[in-house]
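Standup notes
- DV: blocked on the single-chain target, sequence here:
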Amino acid sequence: MNVTLRPPSPADYDTIAAWIPDGDACRRWAGPKVPFPFAAADLPTLLPVPGGGSYCLVGDRDAPLGFGQYWPRPGNTIHLLRIIVSPESRGKGLGRELCRQLIGRALAASPAHALTLNVYRENGPAVALYEGLGFTVDAEKSNENALFMIKRVP
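- DV (later): unblocked, structure below
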């Protein structure tokens, strides 16, 4: 399947919202500042990334298969956040492709020396995905619930 990134449309937020079944899933995906329940139409204002980008991973039918954001941060770093793949598409390598393309877009828009992200410790598949992409855990910036991961950019 050919997949690519594109900016999300209002209809895409309806699809993405359907992937978030409860408050725990919302917190794990979007963090504590996004309330649950939320209106899909409010997601563009609930998920700001000043100077960054929001993208949907889409396939041949142009329907969202995944969503992710990047946010340029001080110190020449780019933070990846709110990465999610549709429940029906998980386990097919789309998370890796979403991250790979999102990193490419982020670095093209804002050159950086490092990429960072946070992931909940108990999210084993995501931790393995990020490690496979070259991210390593920064123990000093991690906490009991979440790992702070970093990838140096050559």
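- Follow-up: The domain at 4-152 is CATH 3.40.630.30 (Aminopeptidase).
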